[in-house]
Every structure is written in structure tokens, then in C-alpha cells.
Amino acid sequence: MYYLQSRWKLENKKLHYYGLRNTPNMLKNDIALSRKQADIIATLPRSLNDEERTIIKPFLGKQVVSENELKYIPKSLTEATYCTCCCANDFIIPGLEFDEQGKCPMCQTADEVKDLKSVVPILDEIPPGKKSRFDVALFYTGGKDSTYMLYYLSKVKGLRVLALTWEIPYMSECAKKSIENAKKMLDSVEFITRTVSKNDLKKVYQKLYSLSENTCACPSLAYLLFYPELVANKVPYFVAGNEPVQMLGLYYNHIAPKIAYSFADNKWLTFLMNVGRILTLHPPLKQGQFQTLMTMKQLAYGDNLIKKLSGYNNELVSNIVKAINTVPELLPPLKRSIRQSSRSGNVPAFVHLDLDKICNGKYDWNQVKNILIKECGWVAPDDENKALHTSCKIEKCKDYTQFLRFYHCKSKMIPFSALEFSLASRNCGRTKEESLYEMEHLLGFSLNEIPECRIMREFLGDEK
């Protein structure tokens, strides 16, 4: 009897691997098949005759195996195999492979991705704004990372900051307290809070839940709500407060290719794009402004043709765009601001600050927490061991649903937290014991529904 190896699935005339492969095949998850090969593999498991084995010979012992060669997929952390260098394991990332030294693909490629810092331009210094009463805007959640960025921009660099908070129904109590304390302690910051009506938000969330099985829409809805504010105030720069591992995770999730991390520095591509703008009577743009328009246009109009053809897709954002379109009244202000800013050239530049660099080489979670408590009145979660995400009560639900969908091969997107946590576990000042505790108790990697899912269903009106 021959079987299709675990984590390989036949999809049309391709084999797709749901996992993270060893180098040099790390991002080669699709294998094209001939019609005959696809027809044979579609009938597995069964015995094969000599002619059939000849037709699928390239896959024998690899993608097509005997029963005793099938790889076991762990059902818990206790059954998992762990990377020898980080906390990555084949439970939180089903289909994770290891080399002969026991390293996961992320650790195998650590040296070659060390310069992949951001898909938007990195600035060492943000200059004072000349046309605005703000120097920079920050999407601020009250969580650890955005609070550190708020502290750094306002207190360390002395900039005039516009802090933008989308008040979601799932905001954690510690995040709410942190925001209120920051308002009292940071005098150079102006705070704006926006929300979406409960009725409209329910429609968006219900559609998103049907697509992704969770209602996580951050930060996309925040962009939609606040971009008109940025344009109206002529804010020159805005940052999202992403930590390094979040940016790097996009590469391993096959969402951003390597070229995306160098696009911001590619003067030739910038020149070509500006030639197109000048020919259409639009003013040229600087780096960061291109990224802003691409981000906002994706939310307003969906993926452009080039991105669709590239094979790189952010399933999370694509589903959010579909969900937003259930309330089309949300889109006209965004579209007007896109047109206005594109025509005038007053586009706020989407930029990134390298948190490792501004923390003297390493963004140490434990050290950061101590600074924030002292300088901003930041309130830590009830469990002081929690470090990855601290601002949302359903963050664990996102972990759980992304994990469950990937585990059962219903989604090609590796759970964001699984990648981010694994990457962070080797360079963010956490001991292995601390990381293992958080992975087991504070994240949502479980095959059984976690209690926090009830929070989502209650808001949607589905309390089953």
C-alpha cells in the first residue's frame, strides 16, 4: 500500500506541503504534477502496479510512501520534537522539518536572513515635521511593543506624536489602564481614539469569522479609520510599532519575498514608479509613501493584479478586505483620502524603526517591560510571564484558530504567533523555561477549543 506523506495534499494538479521544509526547499511548498501523476496520487492510499510506480517515481519515498514511512503529527507539546536552537517544534508548526543537527529551517537560515529587517523603509531618525503640528503618528494599542515605541518617540527623541488607538471590543483591561496612564505621563503626545459602530463591526466580524474562524482585524481596520486623519493633519510619517520577529515572520510564512525587504532601498524601482506617476500628472513620491499607498489601496480595492500573479498572498488581509466590503459605507472616506493624498503628494510615509537597533542591539522583552512601567505607567498582564501579545483578550483565539486551521490543512498560513514566538525565543532575552511556559499556558496552541473563544461568539451573538 502506498500513501501520500503526512502534510502533503493534492490540490488540482499540484502537491502542496503544509509545513516548513528544510533548506534548500524551505519555501518550495508546491510541486507541479502531470495529469497522469495527479490521477494516480488522487487514488491513494492503495497498491500500485509497476507502470504506476514508474509514472510517479520522482515522488516515491518522499511524497508517496509506504505506511511505515508516514510521519506522525504530534497532538500535544509533550509529543513534539523541538529545535535545538529555539522553541520551534512540530506541534505548534505541524510539518516543521529538522536537519541533521536538529535545527529548524528558521535557525538553519538565521545568517542569511539577518538583514531582513522590514518591508517598509527603516529610519534611524525621524525629522521634525514642517507642514504639520505632528512629527509622527503611531498606531497605539496599549500593548508592550507600541507602548515602547510611544515612549521612544516622545520621551527619548522628543518628537510630537499623534497616538492613534482603535478601540476594539476585546481590548484587555491592562491595555486600557496602560493607555490612560500614558495619557497622564506623556505630555508631548496627542491621543485620538476611534471606534466602529457595534452594528457595523458585527457585520464585518461575522463575515471575517466565516472566512477565518476568528475576528482579528488589527491593524487593517485601524488603517481604514485613521488614514483620513493622517492626511487631514499632513502627518509626514507613521509607524505601526512592529517588533523585529513580526517583520521576519512574513518571510517564513511566504507572505513577503526577500526582495520586499530591499524594495525600500531600491532607487531604480523608485525611479521607475515615479516616472509612471509623472506621466499621469501625479507628483513623485519618496520611499515610505509608496508603501503607504499600496497598503491603503489594498484595503480599499483589494490586491492588485501584480500581487495576485506573484504567488505571495496574505490570507489574513485578503479575508479582512472581503469582510470590510460587507459595510461598504466604511470605504468612501478612505478612498477620498487616497485620491487626495496621491494627487497632492502629501502622503504620510509608512516607516519602521528597528527595535533591536534602538535598544542597543537587542530588543530584550524583560528589560523593555521595566522601562515602560517606570516611564509610561504601563500595566503588565495578570500573568507576568506573558510577553508576545498583551493588548487583546482574543489574541489567544487568533493563535488557536490559525493553529487549528493550519493543523488540519484548511489554511496555508502558518500561525503568526508560532513563527514569531519561535524566532523571538532565541534572541529576545527569554530563557527556554520562560518561553516553554508561555507557549504551553498563555498562547492558543491547542486542539481543544480554548475558553476565550466564547468572548468572540458573545460579541457576534452566537453563544453556543
Structure, explained:
The structure is a single chain. It is built from 20 helices and ten strands. The protein has 464 residues and is α/β, with parallel strands linked by helices. It folds into three domains: 1-71; 73-111 and 394-464, no CATH class; 136-241 and 276-355, Rossmann fold (3-Layer(aba) Sandwich), CATH 3.40.50. The strands form three sheets. The chain has a five-stranded parallel β-sheet, with helices on both faces. A three-stranded antiparallel β-sheet has the order 2-3-4, with no helix packed on it. The longest helix is centred in the middle third of the chain and has 15 residues, at 198-212. The model has no long low-confidence stretch (mean pLDDT 90).
* Class from helix and strand fractions: alpha/beta
Cα distance, first to last residue? 43 Å
CATH architecture identity of the largest domain: 3-Layer(aba) Sandwich
The percent of residues in helical segments reads: 40-55%
| Low-pLDDT residue spans | none
Helix-strand sequence: EEEEHHEHEHEHEHHEHHHHHHHEHHHHHH
